[in-house]
Amino acid sequence: MFTSISGNVAIVTGAASGAGLGVAKVYAKNGISVVITGRTESRLLSAKKEIEEQTLSCCCR
């Protein structure tokens, strides 16, 4: 049985680049709202923009 993951929320740490960013993108593409965190604000805002280009929303902290 397949359970839909759409509509859930995920907090992704280290999402400014690399694997964290990749995970956040996959989650967002599958309808999961993502909250991303990272150490470098400029890179985090860039990652947020990338995610938002593919989906409707993303929150970074």
TrEMBL record:
It comes from the Bacteria. InterPro entries: NAD(P)-bd_dom_sf, SDR_fam. Pfam families: adh_short. Gene3D superfamilies: NAD(P)-binding Rossmann-like Domain. This is SDR family NAD(P)-dependent oxidoreductase.
